Amino acid sequence: MRRCWPTFSSSGRGWWPTSDEKRFGNPARPDAGGTQGNSSGGVTFLQPLILFGLPLILLPVLIHLLNRLRHRPQVWGAMQFILAATRSSVDRARLKQFLILLFRVLAVLALILFLSRPFAGGWLGWAVSVAPDVIFLLVDRSASMETKSGEGGAFRREEVLRTMSEAAEEFEGTSHLVLVDSATRHPQTLDAAADLLEHPLAAATDAAADIPSMLQAALSWLIKNEVGNAEIWLGSDLQSESWRPGDSRWETLSGKLQALPQTIKIRIVSVDRPAGSADAQLTLQNQVRRERAGRREAVFSLEINTSSLETDVIPVEFTLNGVSTELQVKMDSPQQGWTHRTDLGSSDSSGWGSFALPADANSRNNAVYFVYGEGGEPRASVVGELGAVNSVLQIAAGDYRGEAAALADLLPNWQLSDLNWEEQSLVVWQEPLPGDSAPELESFIEAGGAALFLPPHELGTNDLAGIRWSRIEEAGADSLFRVGRWDRLAGPLSDTDEGLGLPLEDLLIHQRRNLTGYETGTGAASSLAASFRDGSPLLLRLTRGRGAAWFLTTLPHPDWSSLTDGDVLVPLVQRLLQLGTLRQEQVAYATAGELSPAITVMNWEPAGGGEKDYRWHAGVYRSEDHWLAVNRSPREDSTATVTSEVVRRLFGELPLAIRQEQTDRTEPLQGEAWRLFLLGMLIFLLVESYLTMPQFSFPKFMTFRMAPS
Amino acid sequence: MAPDRQQSLIDSRVVSRLMAQPLYARRDMEGTVSGLHKSPHRGSSVEFAEYRQYVHGDDLRRLDWRVLARTDRYYLKEFEAETNLRAYFALDLSGSMRFGSGEANKLAYAQKMLATLAWLVIRQGDAAGLLAIGSDTVLDLPPRRNPAHLQLLLESLENLKSGGQTGLPSGLHELADRIRRRALVIVFSDCFCDVESLMASLRHLSYQRHDVVMFHLLDPQELQFNFNRPLRFIDLEGQASQVAEPSVIRDEYLRRINQFLETLQKGCREFGIDYRRVQLTDKYETVLADFLIERSRMVANIR
């Protein structure tokens, strides 16, 4: 029991409070109970008895006074000049003497404080603190935390664990350590700080982190257990997608934490150093399975995003049902998409596979997994307000697999509740955005369905993830809106199997309805699939859960555009229909950490053997005849981070300290502050030495003129 | 000529090297016997001075018969008178003369110089006297020419002790008032007194047409002030002491002592006083040799 307050001793059984003390605080500690709220300025010392030596700071003064009595005598003849010079220089001499004494006193003070081993936060501003009753260790174990920092550095998560463990070790006897990981968000008590390093709930995952939810878990634990002071140590890479600064929960959280009767302090361990080497991310944009001439084939649209284009060709390991081959992907730009087709044979109806990049700074974002099986029935519904448009859309979204074509269903808005969403693949929506009035539609999208939104006649007030329709723009007679760019490699407007591009350049567009909120509101979740020459979107993709919402900014109507010709509209809508049909197959896709309850009731085993938890780790899992492909959360691919200013704003008035790795990499999170005092002592001694040097003299501007005495 | 008793003050090797160079006065001396030095009066030396018309009573042996034969006029041919000098050695015995950072202090250094010069003066037939000035006049030996007097002078010199306040200005005033005939006055002092008073006394001597030489003795430590730790300075001329930080007062100290030296030197130059600053690290033999040689050149130029 080393830690104690300078003026008291511990109870002898540790600092963990009894049930009474939990409620009222430990009476033996000045930082507990009702008085602890204002005690953030207190100092904790490991050797408090040494503080009784504080009067020793007067030693230099005493020595100085004694020395004045026993200066070395020097007989002197030219005394008249000594006396005159002394009279002239007495003010400067006194000032210098005072400064020398001051720095000697400070040096002794720093020495005593250094020997008494003050215990404090590792960074300035938190140099002194009291031991809290509870320390929450909030560990972001998302995929982005598996990036290696710096040259040959450790993984960000390991760096966080090491830093937290070292700091928490000093609190083992005094504070309760509670681990809250980003995957489960269930508070777990730790017996020892060292357990954190090997704790299974601190291991790497492919799941996304949700910082507000982690804080909410800590808050709930605090309220439930009625403990005293608490500190929340949060280790994170400040990834914006994990912090979700726009989330409305932040305001509530910071308010509730501040309103707690006990003092809550936040410490952020930010591992924000850039990756030490290049990092490439592989994402599966979409997957289409189709049948041709009695043989099945799968078409994958993939994309590689690399932080630096170091090589022209990147080898990609393609695995299909356990058999691996190597693909060579030519990199023309840091963001390279490509389409891969593979023959699935004629008999095998289901299977699994993966694409994987070579190991780099973050191996967690190098692989994507897929499964395939018997397809579901494509089924589209059109919800529209313009008859002419509805007809075109019904045709475009029809099912043409059989001999007889089947038009898409048309149903009015008020009949949405009657719709069987489970059977739906695509919903074409040409009405004002539904907002909260149609929660089934949003669930449908997040479950993997596809939704195509077209400009409504009326603007409406709702939005979807911040995206909303804007005013209608009409082109002049001589200057129609022209399509400038679109994604020809992947997505619903990509080139055909034969390599022919869709005739988007030939589209004649007279009117369009602009979109707002897609630039900033959704971050990396939205992307332009096609845009006009002025940069405005023609087709915008908004990723929601496993599915996506697509926004087309013009209508298949003669007054609006030439989409009624069908050569662009039909492939677009049919491809969206195929995307939406994927969810009905005998296979399931899931995002690590975001599995639906229906999936979790099944017993999933890794398809390739080994021991992996399908809830947190990407991979392919099998449960009898069902296949499950779990991929990392797309949120983890985002490289956007929140700044320390944003973090401070999120926590409001709560005491907050941020240890940013880029500027403060070597400083421990929490530990003894002896270095600070040792350094101070050295500085004081150096200054004192400089002042006592014979060559020292005050600057000219400090020349004093003796006042007549 | 240097008895054993004088061995501590007179180095035979030094005097043997210096004896070849006589000590001349820059000004006319009024001695009692003939000697090496120019007198303000006409005399019978071989040094021609001027022609003068005969007046009644003049010694006919000094008539220039050649001029009389040519011009039929009576002219006397006059020659320079050469006499001996009387040297007064004034030694400052104030406490500050005890200071010396090296082997010898200022007093010991002055004693050696004074003894050597006295030996040279008496050896060349001139008279040497000693005036030791402490807070008041401690010793006053009038100038004599005989070797026995030198013995007395050296014995007295060796027994002198320094201490107390300086009375150099008043001592020099007293000397100026006392000696009527022109003489050579050589002062050995560190001059640590009121510079105006000192200059007044030197001026007094100069007005009396004495040839005044000032050997200003200084210790290098007094000029450089190279101390690096706080010291308690104890006054050699009194009981006063002062704790001071040399690093703090050094600049001011040097400024003031340099100002003092400049004032002193300028005043001496103004009143024709032969001012010679001597540091204790200088060899006194060299100092004296320079002094004698410069005097010879000076006198040669005048003549």
Write a short abstract of this structure:
The complex is a heterodimer of chains A (709) and B (303). Chain A has 709 residues and is α/β, with parallel strands linked by helices.
Intertermini distance of chain B: 31 Å
Poorly predicted tracts of residues of chain A: 1-42, 121-128, 663-670, 704-709
Q: Note the main sheet of chain B.
A: 6 strands, mixed
Radius of gyration of chain B (CA) equals: 23 Å
> From the helix content, strand content and strand pairing of chain A, which structural class follows?
alpha/beta
Query: What best-fitting shape of chain B do the alpha-carbon axes yield?
Result: elongated
Tally of distinct domains of chain B: 2
Topology, number of strands of chain A: 31
Considering DSSP H and I runs of 4 or more, what fraction of the residues of chain B is helical? 25-40%
Helix-and-strand structural type of chain B:
alpha/beta
Low-pLDDT segments, ≥5 res of chain B: 1-5
What is the overall shape of chain A? elongated
CATH class category of the largest domain in chain B: Alpha Beta
Q: How many distinct helices of chain B? A: 9
Quaternary assembly: heterodimer
Mean pLDDT of chain B: 84
Q: Helix and strand succession of chain B? A: HEHEEHEEHHEHEHEEHEH
Q: Name the biggest interface.
A: A-B, 29 and 40 residues
Strand order of the largest sheet of chain B: 5-4-3-6-7-10
Which key terms come to mind for this protein?
heterodimer, A: 709 residues, alpha/beta, six-stranded mixed beta sheet, 31 strands, 23% helix, elongated, disordered C terminus, B: 303 residues, Rossmann fold, 2 domains, two-stranded antiparallel sheet
